[in-house]
Amino acid sequence: MAAVTELDPLEVARSLFRDQPAGFPYENFDLEELILPEDDDMGIRSDEDEEEEEELETETGFGSVIVVDCLPVVPEDKHEKLANVLKKIYSQIGNVREGGIFMPKDANNMSKGFAFVEFFSPQEAQAARAQTDGYKLDKNHTFKVSMFDDFDRYAKVPDVYAAPEIKEYSAAENLHSWMLDKLSRDQFAIKYGDEVVVMWNDGRRFRSEEAYKRTYWTESFVQWSPMGNYLATMHRQGVAVWGGPSFQRLARYSHQNVQLIEFSPAEKYLMTYSSIEPTNPREKVQVALNVFDTRSGKKLRIFAGNMEDYAIGSSAGPGGALRWPIFKWAGGLEDKYFARLAKGAIKIYETPEMTQLDKKDLKLEGVQDFEWSPAEPLLAAYTQEVGDRPANITLYRIPERTNVRSKQLFNVSDVKIFWHPQGDYLAVKVDRFTKTKKSTYTGFELFSIREKDIPMDVLELPNKSEKVLSFAWEPKGHRFALVHGDSARPSVSFYSMKDDKGKLGVKHLGTLANKACNGIHWSPMGHNIVLSGLKALNGQLEFFNVDEFEVLAAAEHFMATDVEWDPTGRYVASSVTSIHQMENGFNMWSFNGKLLYTMPRDRFGQLSWRPRVPSLLPREKEEEIRKGLKEYSRRYDEEDEALLLQADADVLQERAKQQEEWDAAAAARQEYAAQLRAFYEATYGEAAKEKEYSMTTVVVEQLLDVREEPYNA
Amino acid sequence: MRPYLLKGHERPLTQVKYNAEGDLLVSCAKNLQPCLWYADDGRRVGTYEGHNGAVWTCDFTLDSSRLITSSADQTVRVWNLPTGQELHQIRMNEPCRACHLSVGEQLLAFTTDSFMGSPPQLHLVDMDLQDFGERQGSAPKASYTAPKGRITRVYFTDCNRQLITSHDGGWVRRWDTETGDMLQEVQVHEDAIQDMQVSPDGSYVITASLDKTAKLVDIASLETLKTYKTGRFVQSAAISPLYDHVLLGGGQDASQVTTTSAKAGGFEARFYHKVYAEEFGNVRGHFGPINSVAFAPDGRSFTTGGEDGYVRIHHFDMDYFTTRFF
């Protein structure tokens, strides 16, 4: 038994007293006292027994113990306090065994900065590890949590350092390559049948060109990242992103049965979502969300839980379903914060730590909805009216959590929040109860975010009983459009937030009455808008210029289900997806409503324009270019002309080629046809000679009956 | 364009067909009486009464003296075309679908659907169409069994030495007339072929399929020459004898028609350029899917028959002949 003394005392104690209550102070044992009499093992396995089996035992025995490292080092009198803190943290996650928290001490009775926590089950321990690894206790102490059993594994790490193989550097492809197109064309992805095709929209030549095509690329849909650098494809095992001129795979994100994804605005992070239907109907639907680093593919954070904890307020769809996205990313290109609704609070998380901002919720009693400004970490939250407490719209600046603007509302039935795409304005659509509480009417509260103290305007429709069907801000502008009235022939009204002299104040620009329209689509550059009557209205499209207040063109894409502007505001694609049985495919229009080309494709799934990397030009410069457009465009007219001529030539050439091929094939069939003809003539003889038919009228008189009858005068 | 709207059937049309000269037109429908019309002005000459089931297809003799009809009442009948008198019938135990006379009119090929356990079959009958005496065979002289799936059309090709058939499931097959051996089979379409018509020179066929395309297929090699994508079900397709044009008819499935607006159906007859496979025109009129289209043998008019029970004869205007469409 000499060897015993060379063993790690802890190890031995552990294997000998595996049934001790949790927190058993192994370390203070004098090993010598443990040596048993000869030939009596008292039911304890001796060292001679098979080592392998022993290891196995060890692994399972401590599966429910975790080791929490990086704790503060505290003197004895504070031990209990720290233990209580740990207990509080971990009993939220699982059942900690009675006395299951143990903190070793050194000779001076100072804690050693780590602790063991034992749970009732290994599952709880796993969950605790996953959830609290990286937990921030305070500024200086971030938990480092490991499974106890993992120490075994780490002990097996070889002592000699073997340098990892250095991977050959392979130059990555330029992800921005599509922005360098000489003809400044845009790309879009379409999915039909089992094919996904990325196409160049060559609107100037009335056609599109294939950039990349792949069969069975995705199992459900494809999605561009917000800046267009990545194309995400969905698979049973997870998500993959592709990019560069040859659409190489850039990263994979493992998430079984992933259903939905969301990129952060600057595409640094990717959130994936799946829900798990329980096999037992009494159990609750589980959701799992993963946050990945887009570039490295590393999983940064897991959110998991019951669906009902996530389906709160505006995140809840009909029937307790979730409304995507659950987590909303703060605006701007920082990707610093993301948040979700919880009961009576908004949970805000910060990156790259992926932990809750300041470790606490933004408590808001009765919060039902919130939206981030698309431009900055500023969020607008709506809290419900309960009893005497009025409903509230509040703007919070994050991370300070300062309340920058607040507005109380009364008799509210529902509220919708619409941010201006550049974050300049905020519109809040408020449905209020009438005095009788039997019906509601709609009004808008409009905030001007960029002005001092964020002034607010109120807009009410001239006819209060009208329903508002949709609302949309003009991108890069000061105007907005809304569709109101009864749903069959509603009206479309335009308003401006500024008058001609740039003074603030809501101004009515005009109303188009009696439109077959149920959707409004602003050009991403503003100024132009497409009024669409989709689905039930058979695909009416009206191209409208708001500056001149004139209809540019009215058209129809029969049965169209979707309308999408390209990111430059030059083209509009309308498509019929496979929810209809026939006429699937898309039509491409110019911004002024000229049909450029059509592409019928059976089982058409989607059309998505590839977003562009945000312009580096400041807004003033863009406006300047717009004003001098005539000057600039002259330069391109000639180029356009040449392109058109070339396009015509291409079509003719293609046709000539097809005709040539056909003629060649027809010549090859000539002999066969002649043989048939000869046989035909030989068989029928004279009758085979083709003859013109002629109509001759033949009068045939037929005597049916002759009868004599007496004449009665 | 002067369309004649012919109302001779209360039930959906199954086939419209011109005789060799192009002065007569026969329409078959799911009601019991095929109709004979003057192709020029749409006057009805008469009907053929005797069938007791939907009439699927018909065929003429070259001299327009006899009409062959095959029907779901399990008979193929031969009629005196000018008088409407029934001359002969072949009784089977299965619904009869497609029929075609050989060159020389000594042989009749027709197909039966699979029914009550019997497989789909191709039958050949000896015919003497001028004299229906004692010797006239009322039973097939040969029957060939086809793989599962309805045989929708049959034609004699290659100087009567071969038969070409189109099938459910998109197959086109070639058979040896004498032995009944299947010589070649190609799955041309992804879904059922509803109609197949032979080109004027007999060297290729056009197929119309529920996979929303029509195709030109070489008759000797069964190679696909051209594909016409339409985005809607194609029930019938015809080749112009005059120009490089093809005519396609079809539209939304009849069972779905009432669920959407009339325009949603896509019931237009559509013209495609045969070589460029580009659509250049369409003719509206039917309010149900078009089940059958046919070009007049001179190519100066065409006829469509619809699920709505109407037959429409269209004579082209002058500008069809003068316009350069491409």
From TrEMBL, chain A:
InterPro entries for this protein: EIF3B, eIF3B_RRM, Nucleotide-bd_a/b_plait_sf, RBD_domain_sf, RRM_dom, TIF_beta_prop-like, WD40/YVTN_repeat-like_dom_sf
Keyword terms: Cytoplasm, Initiation factor, Protein biosynthesis, RNA-binding
Domain RRM: 64-150
Major localization class: cytoplasm
Location of this chain's protein in the cell: Cytoplasm
PROSITE patterns (alphabetical): RRM (PS50102)
Function field: RNA-binding component of the eukaryotic translation initiation factor 3 (eIF-3) complex, which is involved in protein synthesis of a specialized repertoire of mRNAs and, together with other initiation factors, stimulates binding of mRNA and methionyl-tRNAi to the 40S ribosome. The eIF-3 complex specifically targets and initiates translation of a subset of mRNAs involved in cell proliferation. Component of the eukaryotic translation initiation factor 3 (eIF-3) complex, which is involved in protein synthesis and, together with other initiation factors, stimulates binding of mRNA and methionyl-tRNAi to the 40S ribosome.
Quaternary structure and partners: Component of the eukaryotic translation initiation factor 3 (eIF-3) complex.
Protein family membership: Belongs to the eIF-3 subunit B family.
Protein name: Eukaryotic translation initiation factor 3 subunit B
Taxonomic path: Eukaryota, Viridiplantae, Chlorophyta, core chlorophytes, Chlorophyceae
From TrEMBL, chain B:
Alphabetical list of Gene3D superfamilies matching this protein: YVTN repeat-like/Quinoprotein amine dehydrogenase
Compartment(s): Cytoplasm
WD repeats: 6-47, 48-89, 186-227, 283-313
Highest taxon of the lineage: Eukaryota
Keywords: Cytoplasm, Initiation factor, Protein biosynthesis, Repeat, WD repeat
Subunit structure, as described in the record: Component of the eukaryotic translation initiation factor 3 (eIF-3) complex.
Family: Belongs to the WD repeat STRAP family. Belongs to the eIF-3 subunit I family.
Function: Component of the eukaryotic translation initiation factor 3 (eIF-3) complex, which is involved in protein synthesis of a specialized repertoire of mRNAs and, together with other initiation factors, stimulates binding of mRNA and methionyl-tRNAi to the 40S ribosome. The eIF-3 complex specifically targets and initiates translation of a subset of mRNAs involved in cell proliferation.
Listed HAMAP family: eIF3i (MF_03008)
Protein name per its UniProtKB record: Eukaryotic translation initiation factor 3 subunit I
Organism: Tetradesmus obliquus (Green alga)
